[in-house]
Amino acid sequence: MAKTKTQSLHKRESDLANSNRQLEILSNGIFGNGELPTFKDKIAETNQFPLIPNKLEILQINLGYMCNQVCEHCHVDAGPDRKEIMTRETMSQCLEVIKKTGAHTLDLTGGAPEMNPEFRWFVEEASKAGIKDFIVRSNLTIIRANKKYYDLPDFFKKHNVHIVSSMPHWTRGKTDKQRGDGVFDKSIKALQELNERGYGMPESDLRLDLVYNPSGAFLPGDQMSMEKDFKKALKEDFDIEFHNLFAITNLPIARFLDYLIASENYEDYMYALVEAFNPAAVKNVMCTNTISISWDGWLYDCDFNQMLDLKVASKVKHISEYNESLLQDRKIIISQHCYGCTAGAGSSCQGVVA
Amino acid sequence: MQKTYYDPADLKKFGKISDWNQELGDKFFEYYGKVFEEGALSAREKSLIALAVSHTEQCPYCIDAYTKDGLQRGITKEEMMEALHVGAAIKSGATLVHGVQMMNKVNKLEM
């Protein structure tokens, strides 16, 4: 069992901080020797290669890798020691895109996006664009991390932000093991505060959804059953309400890959992903309706490709030269980590896809 | 020569039992799948029963499969261990209740 680390792979100068090293691992071994089919070969079996975009629906903007937590499974390798955050200049370029995009959803993520000093300015400006669904992925504990964040629930409410928050389990033990000591209690307190503002309440328009990531080397169970169990436990134990639960598969990159290798679960996990491959999940996989933008303005097919530094295969590669129609005419870059999004009912930042 | 009777990789080959008798294999897997569907009992409850029985049957494949199944369903280790104790209690109870038979026999045979 790997112990909870308190520093990012980058800070630890781990081999796996290098995205090329991660891609090497994902391409060699059981995939290199033909024991398991590559993702490309697998989707080719059902004539789904090359993977190309459908209609753009979601702009996902990563405001930076800085975070107040160091979760063991984090695919971003985020943490307090990561200093990469989006500048106001890049945010301004994003705002120009947000005003013109055909996407109906804006999804701000991190790290903890709230830690970016320009976060509130950016939310205020972006909310003026009248985008239909404005998501902030909040880790919850940030709301209780420091006095300067205590008013975040009111700020979110003022701008009608849709909150999506991680919660790996309804018990303290499993949550703290994945996300760090004390995370469960702070998350519960933050959820109660959000509920007090009307977030997550039945019939409320203030959307509060939770994200469930398995706390180990196994795949998520059925999303609807998990949602039922989460709702029952959080209501009974803490009188907490929320709207939907998104069950998301951990992808074998960054710290989760490090954990899989250190705990000698890597091969079994990849077998489980390949065995659970669902061709029906491929056509709705999130890279087909999303553009991911990094803190420094580069464009990616998804947040995972961003972390592997696999920039879009397009003439347009940066927010400063954004052109939606040109960008839509591209082939999506894939590797073996993509099996994480096509296992079982599929997985995306919005939960299951099949 | 294989050094152990059990190989974890064999669990992945379970489906191959149909190769030598397709009809019965298919019927078994259809039945098996049906049993674990949501019914009067939830799939979660069935998973815990399966985990307990896996232990009383001492089937390493089943223990492997239903431990993972439980984790995937969000079942906690405390719930898993309690389920095991139910299995263990029945197993030990089943041993000890035969003690009555022993006592009956002793009482009958002894003067």
Notes on the protein architecture:
The complex is a heterodimer of chains A (354) and B (111). Chain A is an alpha/beta fold and 354 residues long. Chain A has a single domain (15-341), classed as TIM Barrel (Alpha-Beta Barrel). In chain A, 35% of the residues lie in helices and 10% in strands. In chain A, α5 links the parallel β2 (105-109) and β3 (133-138). The longest helix of chain A is centred in the middle third of the chain and has 16 residues, at 223-238. By secondary structure, chain B is an all-alpha fold. In chain B, α2 (43-56) runs antiparallel to α3 (60-72) and α2 crosses α4 (77-109). The radius of gyration of chain B is 19 Å and the shape is extended. The mean pLDDT of chain B is 95. The A-B interface holds A 169-171, 173-174, 212, 214, 216, 218-222, 225-226, 229-230, 271, 275 and B 12, 42-44, 68, 71-74, 76.
Oligomer: heterodimer
Strand order of the largest sheet of chain A: 6-5-4-3-2-1-7-8
Query: Tell me about the biggest sheet of chain B?
Result: none
Would you report the number of β strands of chain A?
8
* Mean pLDDT over the residues of chain B: 95
Number of domains of chain B: 1
In sequence order, what are the helices and strands of chain B, one letter per element? HHHH
Q: Order of SSEs of chain A, N→C?
A: HHHEHEHEHHEHHEHEHHHEEHH
The amount of beta strand of chain A, in percent, is 5-15%
Rg of chain A, nearest Å: 19 Å
Largest interface: A-B, 19 and 10 residues
Assign an overall shape of chain A: globular
Category from helices, strands and their pairing of chain B: mainly alpha
CATH class membership of chain A: Alpha Beta
Count helical runs of chain B. Answer: 4
- Portion in helices of chain B: 55-70%
Largest sheet of chain A: 8 strands, mixed
Q: Structural class of the secondary elements of chain A?
A: alpha/beta
The CATH topology label of chain B is AhpD-like
